[in-house]
Amino acid sequence: MARLITRIGRCHFEPRRTGTHFEALARAIIGQQLSTKAAATIHLRVRGLYPGGRLRPDAVLATDDATLRAAGLSAQKLGYLKDLASRVANGTLPLARVHQLSDDEILERLVAVKGIGRWTVQMFLMFRLGRPDVLPELDLGVQNAIWRAYDLPRRPTPREVLEIGAPWRPHATVASWYLWRSLE
Q1: How far is CA 127 from CA 21, 66, 84, 145, in A?
Q2: Contact 29/58 with Cβ under 8 angstroms?
Q3: Is 139 an active-site residue?
């Protein structure tokens, strides 16, 4: 890691503060398994359905499925988006006070939403909430960067990523940032 830090220089990690937590999670759902361009196009179309381009749980729930499908959402992603909106609207997912929860509590609550997995939650913790100690062990970029940086014979498994990354705690988010930058 010291070589990477020296080569890359000062860390410029900055969480994204624009929009709401709901919008950030909705964007993550919309963008799953799509190219960046396709995800951006569909996200823009979905936002265009709402005043000011603001996605709100109640508005999403009030939008008929055909309208969201016409904007480009698959039936599966439509279900995921409505599940997220329902949980936020009924209070079972308290996004307004999510900053008060621990990383593990956030993980537990968000993976209960259809279509949101561990990796998505880790990206939310890092890039939306700015949590300092997140190591996305499932991320192929992190795995590949460790493979290269540590000159390993093969890409590390998620368990090995956690073992190798243990010394980076409590700054695993910054270490992950450096690992991603090392691939550029």
Answers
A1: 11, 32, 19, 19
A2: no
A3: yes
Task: Return the H-helix or E-strand segment holding 112.
Answer: none
Which residues have a Cβ under 8 Å from the Cβ of 109 and sit 6 or more positions away? 92, 93, 94, 101
What digits encode the pLDDT tens for the residues 37-84? 999 999 999 999 999 999 999 999 999 999 999 999 999 999 999 999
135-182: CATH, from 1.10.3720.10, 2.30.29.30, 3.40.50.300, 1.10.1670.40 = 1.10.1670.40
Say which of 65, 103, 139, 151 is annotated catalytic. Answer: 139
Q: How far is CA 149 from CA 4, 111, 153, 176, in A?
A: 8, 31, 11, 12
Cβ atoms < 10 Å from Cβ of 152 = 13
* Amino acid found at 168: W
Quickly tell me which residue has 């010394």 as its tokens.
Answer: 167
In angstroms, the CA 9 to CA 178 distance is 9
Residues 32, 34, 37, 38, CA torsion sign: negative
Predicted model pTM:
0.90
The Cα 50–Cα 108 span in angstroms is 30
Sorted by where each begins, the domain ranges of the chain are 21-127, 135-182
